[in-house]
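Sample entry (49 residues):
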Amino acid sequence: MGPDNAETVRKNRPLKSWDDVERLPGFSKQMVDELVKAGVILGGADSGE
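Predicted structure, serialized as tokens:
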């Protein structure tokens, strides 16, 4: 994931599911599947989750 996609995620937080991520511009099902396979998780210390 490049800086443009990272900025898209940041601007659209909080994202509650991978389906939410897949709906963002620049994110395909394949990209989301690769992120999940790589162990990326949604949420974080400041996400309120």
